[in-house]
Structures are given as structure tokens and as C-alpha cells.
Model the fold of this input.
Amino acid sequence: MSPMAATVPLTIIFSTIASLTVVPWMAYKLLASRESGSGALTIQNNSAQHDLTQHDSVTPEWIRRNYRRIVEPFLESRKKRYGLLLSMLGALVLCGGLVFFNQVPLQLLPFDNNNVLQLVINLPEGATLEDSARTVSDFESYLKTSSYIQSFTAYIGTPAPMDFNGMVRHYYLRSAPNLATIDIQLIPKGERWISSHAIGLSMRKNLEAIAAHSKAKLSIVEMPPGPPVMQTIVAEVTGTPSMSYEQIIAGAQHVESLLKTIPLVVDVSDSSETPRNQYTFLVNQEKAALNGISSETILNTVHLALGSLTDMSIHVERNDQPVQIKFEIPKSERQSTTDLLNITVKGDQGQSISLRELGAFINTPAEQPIYQKNLERTVFIYANTAGSAPTDSILSIVHELNKNPPPPGIKVNWSGEGSLHITLNVFRDMGIGFAAALIAIYILLFIQTDSFFIPIIMMLAIPLTIIGIVPGFALLNLIANHPIDGFPNPIFFTGRVEI
Done:
């Protein structure tokens, strides 16, 4: 984001210099050459004043006549001048009201129109690769019915090819049986009349229904128009050092439950894993030592039984590359821990010893992975918006948290890794650059007018531009905001417009 923040003030500075040097010089040259034949523009060599009379003016008569008709009433009447001032202030208040009541939604960058979409599917931890494959098959059956989709590729249990967005969101770490990704290639832009964002909105409800049937968490990911972030809305939930990580997770689940109640907030999830149990084989060291069996041998045997020992290969004649092999016990013989305890291991003297005699399986809760940021244990909450500005959704959830706060000691930060973080930084830098440009304009106008007050009057026209822009966007949303499958599709007042 740094290049964008650096180029904004540079753009304002150079445009200001050009408007106060090059533009006046060019205007003088063009007007002088235009009137040189008629002698309407006379420049006195012994004076810096230009002798422009009414007949010498280059402005057409109808423009000067209408200008006087509009301006002279305000020059002649103090009441009309005050009335004009109050009307301008009222128009500014009206523009602020349009933004405050969400008639003009704000967003840093507009949605881009790409040829790709991505479905990120997370089944509950403990789901098998076969469960993920069945869920992906249901999604594929629906995607085949869309006329906007040209092709799609599914990646089950393995990460999809990484792009810039996936690098920031750590999609290259999605290597687990319960994780899947579907890359969707849309038809070319010239062959469709709606954007990729609108296509995602039109498919969302059906895709969410498929995900709910499989108890999966779904995210419809679009390629961002600007710098990628972990998710559109990211909440960082932390606690005091004396709190356990389970207490922080409980506080995050409270925030997550409130976030799900906010309208137009979708794809809500968090960084915690589904609570589940795991079996740990506790080796009887004394019996294992008496039979000459090491813990590593027992571990490899259990891995072999579960099919997770694959780092073996054989060499086939006339084949340059080794062939990977995988040993696996039939599923019918490894349905429970009782079946696994019947597996035998050879001792140091060739005797067969069952795992039942060498230890026992203990059922314990699986530990949660602990995420940290700035040396603080953190639970991340992710969410997206469908037809709403992220800032509006964050303001709504903050209001809900004020009414229903999390447990004591829990802190929630909304400006850490989401789009709000970039929005605040960019608008801060643009504001600093704009303020510097205004100061430079004032100094130059002061030099030209030799007055402290006249430059202020001239610069009052700068904030008045909002009177035309904001109502224009409100009118545009009334005309062109067509909901898609129940989701609003507004036209956002973005940072590009403000620049």
C-alpha cells in the first residue's frame, strides 16, 4: 500500500504547481494570440496593468449578460447574500446526511470485474478426504448449470496454485483432508453483461445452501482491485495474560455470534478449530523394553496401519524414476481402536507382540492451535460483505458490542488485518497530502493577491464540489442500484472519486 500512499501527495503537489504556473502561462499565450489581430488586448510596457474595456473583452455578450443577471441580485441585497450562504451550508449538511444515512455508500476501491472467482471450502476438522470430495462434487454439479462459467478446477486436500491474494491469505497452507478449493474461470467480459461480483452475488444463496447441507464453511473469494488483505472484515480478539486460550476463544465466539446477526455480513468464520477428541497411544516402556521394541517402531506401525506412512519407494527395471509405494491395512480391519490394538509388532527375537500388550489408547481432547500477533495470543474472526460497505458493517457490530459486550478482559480490534486497516491508512495519507497542497495553494494565492483574506474566499469553492458529487452518487444509486438475488448492488463512492 505504500506506493499508493506516496503517489497521492505527489500527484496533488505536481498538479498544483502546473495549475499555478503552466496553465496561466498557456492561457495568457492563447488569449494574446487570439486578440493580437484586433488589438483588443493592450499591454502597457510601463505598467503591470491590463487595459481591458467592455468592448475589448473576449467574453461573449450573452455570457456577461447572464452572469450579471445571476450575480447582481446578491451584490445589491445583503439578505440574498446571507440566504445564499445558508443554502450552501444546508446543502453541505444534506450531503453529510446522505452519507450518514447510507444513501451514498463509501468504500476505498470499487469491485473489480475479473474473469475468475474462487470457492474456499472448509469442512469441520476430522472430516475425511472422501467427505470433502462428496461436498466438492455437489458444488461442481451446481456450477455446471451456470451459463457464466467457462470451466472450473477443484483442489481437494491440497492447496490451489498460489496467487497474490492467496499469498496474503496463506492459501498455500491449505493441505488437509477437510480443506478444498474450486477455481472458477468465467466467460470473457465481452460475452457477459454483468460483472464477476454480480455473478458471485447471484450464486451465493445456492452455494451457501450446499455448504450448509455438508456443514461446511464457504467463502466466495474475488480478486481484489487493490492490495489484498486476510479478509474484508477481520477482528482480532485478545485477552489478558492471565486468561487461557479457551477463554479467548469463548470471547471470540461471542463476537462471532453477534457478527452473524448483522445484515449483509456473510462468510463468517474464525481461526479456531472444531472441538474434537484424539486418540494417543501411551507406550508401556517397561514391556516394550523387555521385548526389544522401540517407541519409533510402534509409531511407524500405527502410521502404517492408518495409511499415513508413504515415504517409501521401489525401483522398477527400465524406469528412471522411483515408484512411490503406500502400505495400507483394509478399512474393515481398522475401524476402531480395538482393531488397531490387534496389530502385531515383531520383537527383537522374532516374536509377534500385539499393540494391546505394549500400551493403550487414551481419548483426549485435541489441542487448539494458538495464533499470536505482536506476542499476544489472538483469535481471528473473518467475514465478508454482500452488497454492503465494510465500514458500515463494522460500525453496526461495534454498536452491538456496546449493547452486549464480550466477557471482561476481552479486547476486539477491527483495524488490524482487514480492509479497514488499509482504508484508515490511505485516507490518513491522502488527508495529509491534501492539507499540504491547500497550504501551498494559499501561500501562492497570497503572493499573487497580496491579501490574507482573498485567498480564503477563492479557496472556499474547493469544499463546495461535494455539493455536486454526493447528490449525484445518491441519484445514481436510485437509478442503477438493481438488487441481485436479494442482495443490494450499490455504486460506491470510492477513494478514486475523492482523488
